[in-house]
Design a protein that fits this description.
Elements (H helix, E strand, L loop, with lengths): L20 E5 L2 E4 L4 E4 L2 H4 L8 H13 L10 H13 L6 E5 L2 H16 L3 E5 L8 H6 L3 H4 L9 E4 L4 H7 L4 E6 L2 E2 L5 E2 L4 H12 L2 E5 L23 E4 L10 E5 L1 H6 L12 H16 L2 H19 L4 E7 L2 E6 L4 H9 L2 E2 L1 E2 L4 E4 L7 H17 L1
Parallel strand pairs: 3-15, 5-6, 5-7, 7-10, 10-11
Antiparallel strand pairs: 1-2, 2-3, 4-12, 8-9, 11-12, 13-14, 14-17, 16-17
The structure holds pyridoxal-5'-phosphate.
Length: about 375
Amino acid sequence: MSLVDPRSVEFACSPKREPTFVRGSMATLWDEDGNEYIDCGASFGVGNLGHCNPAVVEAIQQQARDLIHVGPTFGTKAKAEFTDKLLSIAPTGLGRVFLSNSGSEAVEAALKFARAATGRKTIIAAMRGFHGRTMGALSATWRRDFREPFEPLVPGFEHVPYNDIAALEAAVDERTAAVILEAVQGEGGVHVATTEYLPAARDVCDRAGALLIIDEIQTGMGRTGRMFAIERWNVKPDIVTLAKSLAGGVPIGATLTTEAVERAFQGSHNSTFGGNPIACAAGTAAIDYAVRERLWARAEKLGAMALVGLRGLKAPSVREVRGLGLMIGIELRGKAAPVLQALQDEGVIAIGGGSSVIRLLPPLVIPEDQWSFALDALGRALRHG
Ligand SMILES: *Cc1c(COP(=O)(O)O)cnc(C)c1O
């Protein structure tokens, strides 16, 4: 029996992968035949807290009994609590938050805030960058095959090479509303910003009067060994976008910004479901759990252990191992798909990042024995690959 409904068209860029999952608990997934898998993809970073984390399940159940939805016209206790909690851990200087339902929506809000606050039109993004699939977010996304069938996209977007300060200086001027960057490019294959790049981006923006948007949708919530990756660069962005694991697996998006941007913003923006009580209750529980368990510290420790092990393999099939915390990319000389399949045959789920990169984004709660098993399985697959 297959649970995949043939009538449900997903328009994914690759065929849907087997197996079909029915249950999850922390880093473990079970398929419909009862097979067990270690999840080292965490749905592209949604699962930092693991599957069905009991703290999140409990909060959702309680909130579902109290109040499922009241729209943005009125306040709810769940939203007020979540907003306070989020701002209490936010990167310094960010005291305002707009809530939505996905990463793309968080980016759309960021782009609209930047244009409406500066009165300028141009957005500078990076080559290999990924910011989502809606028309505005897609305009900031680099990959040609994601963009081309839907053109014309939103005008005013330009892409510069990542980690190239001179190119950024040349592109940003008095017409630039914002620069949007990831601190670690995720979908682009795990490329980490250099020590100088993000501070330089801040300087370039300041000199031109442009805003700096940091997209932490994949890097946030402890993934890179800090609660937010930008903390490592000691840079204050004007806007930060969050989503993926922010509410422990429940759909959510958040756009954090400064009071200065809020004051300068001319216009209106809103969302019917944004800030809905279920997502907010899950989000409050998720942040409490991440802080209590110091998930960023686990990411730092388990990530460092993996980088040493993977670099030590010296497998001829591997071109480069990159990473920060539990965001790890293994660039191969050949295709990633056969290695991903070999891993899956051993009960380990990993994901790609471009055609030749294997990406590991395990739940930050993964037990050390499961993480070691996954890395050993990867070692075997790489040596034979
Ligand atoms: C996943 C992702 C997005 C888009 O999020 P969706 O929830 O899929 O819309 C945007 N930016 C980055 C960096 C991402 O990793």
